[in-house]
Amino acid sequence: MGSTDQATIETGVVRLTDTQDSSLSRTAMIQPDGSFVVQWVPAGTYTLAVSNASNVPRQAFGRRGQQTEAGTSYAPFQESLTVTDTDVSGIGVTLTPATTQ
């Protein structure tokens, strides 16, 4: 994949974890269009983490969650995110393809 190629992430998990209280955590699934919505997040500073990201459609995974179609898996990602008392939208995340060994 070249540096200008941008594949849509179709599966994965987004997790917000409060940096002051790790027991406060919210998750959301990445939708087929690459979007995600995390609801009911109190104001604060969070770690936004993305895991199990792939450009393979959700239906291409077997019963045990194993990928059954060829595609690109992406390395886990995390960054800090501040939430205030209003909705946060337009968060863009750039993921790096995972290296296989």
Topology (SSEs and partners):
Layout (H helix, E strand, L loop, with lengths): L10 E8 L6 E5 L14 E11 L22 E7 L18
Antiparallel strand pairs: 1-2, 1-3, 3-4
Features of this protein?
101 residues; mainly beta; 0% helix
Explained architecture:
By secondary structure, this protein is mainly beta. The protein has one domain (11-83). 0% of the residues lie in helices and 31% in strands. The protein has no helices and four strands. The protein has strands spanning 11-18, 25-29, 44-54, 77-83. A four-stranded antiparallel sheet has the order 2-1-3-4, with no helix packed on it. Strand 1 and strand 2 form a beta hairpin. The chain is elongated. It starts with 10 loop residues before the first strand and ends in an 18-residue tail after the last strand. The model has no long low-confidence stretch (mean pLDDT 84).
Short characterization:
Helices cover 0% and strands 31% of the residues. The protein is mostly beta strands. The protein has one domain.
Instruction: Estimate the global geometry from the Cα principal axes.
Output: elongated
Q: Into which percentage range does the β-strand content fall?
A: 25-35%
Discrete helix count: 0
Oligomer: single chain
Low-confidence stretches: none
Share of residues in helices? under 10%
Secondary-structure element pattern, one letter each: EEEE
What is the rounded distance between the termini? 18 Å
How many domains, as an integer? 1
Strand arrangement in the largest pleated sheet: 2-1-3-4
Radius of gyration: 15 Å
